[in-house]
Specification:
Elements (H helix, E strand, L loop, with lengths): L2 E4 H18 L3 E5 L2 E6 L10 H5 L15 H7 L1
Protein name: Type II toxin-antitoxin system Phd/YefM family antitoxin
Organism: Phyllobacterium pellucidum
Length: 78
């Protein structure tokens, strides 16, 4: 679970927050007027992930996966 801080609070104590994230391994969400805008989290290097691993779990719901994509839908996506 991530902790939240405002931009102004983060600006004043950035180095302290970096050290907390590094020590605890718990991420930090920076907010602007109550809306999340930035996440600070520990770097997890050394483990190469495939594109499929990165995308796994990103599709929440897909109603009709076997339906063809119409020309109109394709033009909008480009």
């Amino acid at each position: 679970m991530s902790r939240q801080v405002s931009k102004s609070e983060f600006k004043a104590k950035a180095l302290e927050y970096f050290r907390q994230v590094e020590a605890s391994g718990v991420g930090l969400v920076v907010t602007d007027h109550g809306k999340p805008v930035l996440e600070v989290r520990p770097y997890r290097g050394g483990t190469e992930r495939s594109a499929m691993d990165v995308l796994r779990g990103s599709v929440i719901q897909y109603d009709k996966p076997t339906d063809p994509v119409g020309d109109d839908d394709w033009a909008e996506a480009q």
